[in-house]
Design brief:
Layout (H helix, E strand, L loop, with lengths): L11 E12 L2 E11 L11 H10 L11 E3 L4 E2 L2 H9 L2 H16 L5 H4 L7 H19 L9 E5 L5 H5 L7 E5 L3 H11 L12 E5 L13 E7 L7 H14 E13 L4 E4 L4 E4 L1 H10 L3 E7 L9 E8 L22
Parallel strand pairs: 3-10, 5-6, 5-8, 6-7, 8-9
Antiparallel strand pairs: 1-2, 3-4, 9-13, 10-11, 12-13
Length: 338
């Protein structure tokens, strides 16, 4: 379900509600009038009133507990634990959560523009900055694999956009995991059309029509596991369990890249596509529980302002020193005397 965390077909909707908070006699009340949604932005906060409110809330000390969140109807959710207990507290409700998410994306047009909710124009900028981030991480971390045998995992691969435009340029083999059948079928058709000048396939790609929360990476198979715009559909418990499985699936020196929408604080629950946009602190807490360490962190730039911020995290299984790439020093040489 990659390119996930947004909406799809029904790109415009209305939301009416008043958000109120009172702290030390200070009362803030803002009414959200409307918003746009897209898969690259899950409840993208495109309604300016909501963004303004979120910006104001950090000004007042004690204005919001760090763990507090909102749903897409403007209702306050006191803690993440309350949210997950409410929506996935037993096995039946957990299954319904995942089924509704898959059903939502099964109704979306199986194209780049479709999975990006009409924001297909951001794909180029997204890939450019992802490529720079991945290249920098590969240069400094240097997985042990020989260049001709490097393998990547594309989680929530959607129609194969990231594999086609990014991963196939760095890895000899890519596994794509995607739970929505119509999306992965398009990925299969599209990626199998990529041939080199001699008519042979340039890279090997493998397809798995499987939910991420159920996928078990083969032991020590991957140099890089790429997770983008899909982890918001997983419960906290399933995120941590997947991190633990993913660690076992990494080769020596391998790493995970998580690229995801990030809320300013707390979390935002999208009740239409059944996903959660987490804050940076929320993510870092999950990384810690999953035994992962942030090696590099960078923010995506150049996206429309109405979208959530998008952050890129390079995650390793061991604490590693961040190495800055240095430019070659200029050697002093004798000048030519004229």
């Amino acid at each position: 379900m990659q390119e996930v965390l947004g909406v799809g077909l029904r790109t415009r909707w209305k939301i009416w509600g008043v958000f109120e908070r009172t702290t030390g006699g200070v009362s803030c009340s803002i009414q959200a009038l409307s918003s746009e949604r897209n898969r690259a932005g899950s409840l993208t906060c495109s309604f300016q009133a909501f963004r303004d409110w979120k910006e104001q809330e950090v000004i007042f000390e004690g204005f919001e507990r760090m763990d507090e969140g909102l749903d897409s109807e403007g209702n306050t959710l006191p803690t993440r634990e309350v949210m997950w207990e409410t929506y996935t507290g037993d096995e039946k409700s957990r299954e319904e959560w995942y089924t509704k998410g898959v059903n939502y994306w099964s109704a979306v047009e199986a194209s780049v523009d479709g999975v990006l909710g009409g924001y297909g124009s951001i794909s180029g900028r997204d890939v450019t900055e992802s490529n720079k981030f991945l290249t920098d991480c590969l240069k400094t971390l240097k997985p042990d694999s020989h260049e001709s045998s490097m393998v990547a995992l594309d989680c929530g691969a959607g129609v194969g956009r990231v594999t086609k435009n990014l991963l196939m340029h760095h890895f000899n083999e890519v596994d794509l995991v995607e739970p929505v059948q119509q999306l992965i079928e398009v990925a299969q058709q599209d990626l199998h059309l990529d041939f080199d000048s001699l008519g042979t396939r340039m890279r090997k790609v493998n397809f798995f029509n499987c939910p991420l929360q159920e996928y078990v990476p083969p032991a020590e198979r991957y140099d890089v596991i790429w997770i983008q715009w899909c982890i918001g559909h997983l419960t906290d418990a399933d995120v941590i369990e997947f991190f633990n499985r993913a660690k076992l699936g990494l080769k020596r020196g391998g790493f995970i890249v998580l690229k995801e929408n990030v809320a300013k604080s707390g979390f935002v629950l999208d009740k239409e596509d059944f996903s959660v946009t987490r804050s940076d602190q929320y993510f870092r807490d999950l990384f810690q529980q999953g035994g992962l360490h942030v090696y590099q962190h960078r923010k995506q730039t150049g996206f429309p302002r109405e979208l959530f911020e998008v952050h890129m995290y390079c995650l390793t299984t061991e604490v590693k020193k961040t190495t800055k790439l240095r430019k070659a020093k200029k050697v002093n040489r004798p000048g030519i005397i004229k």
